[in-house]
Amino acid sequence: MIVITDPTGKDPNGAAAGSMSFAPNMFQSTFLVSKKLHVAVLAGGLGKGTARLEAILACIRRLELGMPLEEAVRAGVEKSPTDRLLVGGPRRGIVVGGSYDITVVIVKGNKIIIKQYHSSAGPNIVKIPPNVKCAVIHLRNTPGNPLYGTATKVRVEAAIMAGRMIRDGLPATEVLTRVMGYVARKSGEKYGGGAVNITAGLSTGDTFVPARLNERGFPLDAPYRKVCPKCGWSAPYPAAGRYTRCPVCGSSLKTEYAWQVARDLITVRKNQPVVRVYGVRSAYDKATIVEIVQSLIQRGKRDPTHIARAIDNAIDNNTLLGYDYVLPSDIKVEPKANLVTVYMRPLPPGYKKRPLKTPVPSEVLHALGLLGSALGVTLIVLGCVRELLHRRTRGW
Length: 396
Ligand SMILES: [Zn+2]
What we know:
The chain has about 400 residues and is an alpha+beta fold. It contains nine helices and 19 strands. It has helices at about 50-65, 70-80, 150-165, 170-185, 260-265, 285-300, 305-315, 360-370, 385-395, and strands spanning about 1-5, 15-20, 30-35, 40-45, 85-90, 95-100, 100-110, 110-120, 125-130, 135-140, 190-195, 200-205, 225, 235, 255, 275-280, 330-335, 340-345, 375-380. It has a seven-stranded antiparallel beta sheet with strand order 8-7-10-1-2-11-12, with helices on one face. A six-stranded antiparallel beta sheet has the order 9-6-5-4-3-19, covered by helices on one side. Strands 14-13-15 form a three-stranded antiparallel beta sheet. β7 and β8 form a beta hairpin. The longest helix is centred in the middle third of the chain and has 17 residues, at about 150-165. The model is unreliable at about 355-395 (pLDDT under 50). Zinc ion binds near residues 228, 230, 246 and 251. Zinc ion binds next to loops.
């Protein structure tokens, strides 16, 4: 799904894309956002991994050369006609080609226009012009899904829901993630996948993505964690199920669903810094560190020393396990970009306590973190195709 609520690209939350599925080998479905080009590329369908990869690469190459979306999509689906490419961004519109079942929503003033399109293969291109508020939802049921047969109905409901939210002025990041929560619950096509903010270049990264190929990711309609609104303590599910009150301060806890976590990860908020974290062991650790840094900065503490001390506290009280202590030099604060970068040093397996020597220099971690952004492209999903694509794009 792609949603554009600000086609001019001025609102940092005005364009977003997301993807999920019931299929265990979901990706197979691929998902890219280019920070440089401000465009998202979603791919899926019946083709084999390699054919789809060729389609994606053909499409991206043309986008890199500044060609129109339509040409890029056409070139892509020529390589693999039974796959689908859904490509779009602010100032560019949205183009779909290949094999799809989509509902298109266009909002003009108070008017919501909804149309449906079907294509089983080939260069059947649907184009939405660059200057309109719009959404495109592709939805099919995967065989084996207990809610098989719901796709057509849910696709239309989702489109109406998106149309109303766009008309009411909600930003794309909000519209997209709410619709994803709804579609996950009603159609069963619910496993992450993830979401991106196309304008600002933020993504959910590997938060909801399966650790191994041919597994399912995290369901976007399920509770993801419990958070204490008073002191910031949090625990992920399933462990969170054991708590009704905060073990630190006794306050009642707030349950956050995965789609809400997705929304918070891709939404740019005033005064809220973007936090990048390298060298973490899990998506949960990353979310914990992002939260620590954001709550400090909202309280006016943007000094690297403060931030390092707060992360060290989380290491001391075992909220973060298996990391060396953080030094102020491991934290880069860039006030102009409203960006904070944190380099964590994971300890070798088996170590619980801090060793005497630092195992990994932060430069190495930085390089590792940047592997995912070759060409200014952040890759969200998939196992072996992700590997392949990394190898290919790094060669460019
Ligand atoms: Zn608390």
